Amino acid sequence: ASFGDMQDRIVGEAEQSTVAVPIVASDQFHVSPKGDLPPDIAEPLGLAGKGMLRANDRAAYKKTLTAQLEQLSCDEVYTFGIWSIAQFVDVARWEMRGA
Question: What does pLDDT average to over the chain?
Answer without folding.
Answer: 85
